[in-house]
Amino acid sequence: MGLRLDVLAVGNINVDMSFFMEGMPEPDDETFARDFAVFQGGSAANFAVGVARLGLRTGILGCVGADPLGREALRLLRKENVLTDSVRVSKRRRTGTVCVLVEEGGVRRMIAYRGANEELRLLVRREIPQAKFVQLCNVSREVLGAVLMRKGEDKVILDPGGGSKDFRIEDLRGVDLLFVNELECRNLTNADYERGSEILSEHVGTVVVKLGSRGAFMREGEESAYQEAFPVKVVDTTGAGDAFNAGFVAALCSGRSGNDCLLWGNGVAALKIRSKGARTGLPTLKDLATFLRERKS
Ligand code: RIB
């Protein structure tokens, strides 16, 4: 694979079918969507594109189906400079597809067909490409366990996403950086995020709690930091967490302080949620610098 990667993203590669609507239909009823669009998605793929746009040498470990959606997903990842050599193309399962329902104000619900993503567990039992940071996005306990077992000098970062309900706190031992939102923090610790992050930091190096419109908080041992979110007009929150993670990891990779990592995370998330789709609006380093400069002055 040539030069060592800065970041390897591990997890889902999806296609998102997004419906923009005023409200949800009642049972047996029908509602009309104001808009519909097909976007590229999947938390690992979104994150990979986010960090690649910010200039990191990025690869992805995941699975797509041997179908037109899978071919297009790979083509667009390559176009974003994400190395896809480690993506498995499944002959048995179709590319993961997600129905995303976005309500006025940006709140979204998702129905996911996991398809080829199910085969990730087979992949991680084999070789995992070397990278400075291995970012696990919404993976199972089995995948986390396999990656931690092979851990070398790389730092392991986990965003358990919806999977947080299946993890036990002991499973996290060996994780260097953990991203959670408030609900996931509660699922893991049964406590609010301030107490929850204290409990989690007994098991992992750094804990970052994403607080949505209230910003983000991090704890590293006894130290903690907080940064407010940037107020922007919210159009679609799909992929906001992946965007935050990309900004945070890009700052971390360039050796910035914890406060800067939170700031970059909030900045990238703010730029994403102004547009429809999980990757639209993800900034280059230059776009991010301009946004942060404008907000500072
Ligand atoms: O994290 C956002 C992503 O979650 C969407 O793009 C969708 O594909 C789901 O996997």
Task: Describe the 3D structure.
The model has no long low-confidence stretch (mean pLDDT 94). The chain has 297 residues and is an alpha/beta fold. Strands 6-4-1-10-11-12-13-14-15 form a 9-stranded mixed β-sheet, with helices on both faces. The chain has a single domain, classed as Ribokinase (UDP-N-acetylmuramoyl-L-alanine:D-glutamate ligase, 3-Layer(aba) Sandwich). It is built from 9 helices and 15 strands. Helix 1 crosses helix 7 and helix 7 packs antiparallel against helix 8. The longest helix has 16 residues. Bound molecules: alpha-D-ribofuranose. Alpha-D-ribofuranose (RIB) binds next to strand 2, helix 1, strand 9 and helix 7.
| Secondary-structure class | alpha/beta
Report the total helices.
9
Which stretches are poorly predicted, pLDDT < 50 over at least 5 residues?
Answer: none
Taking Cα atoms only, what radius of gyration do you get, to the nearest Å?
Answer: 18 Å
CATH superfamily: Ribokinase
> How many structural domains are formed by the residues?
1
Task: Just give the CATH class.
Answer: Alpha Beta
Ends: how far apart? 43 Å
Mean pLDDT: 94
- Identify the strand order in the major beta sheet: 6-4-1-10-11-12-13-14-15
| CATH overall fold name | UDP-N-acetylmuramoyl-L-alanine:D-glutamate ligase
Strand content: 25-35%
How many strands, which pairing sense, and closed or not: the largest β-sheet?
A: 9 strands, mixed
User: What is the H/E order?
Assistant: EEEHEEHEEEEHEHEEHHEEEHHH
Q: Identify every distinct bound molecule in the structure, by name, code or SMILES.
A: alpha-D-ribofuranose
- Gross morphology is globular
Beta strand count? 15
- Percentage of residues in helical conformation: 25-40%
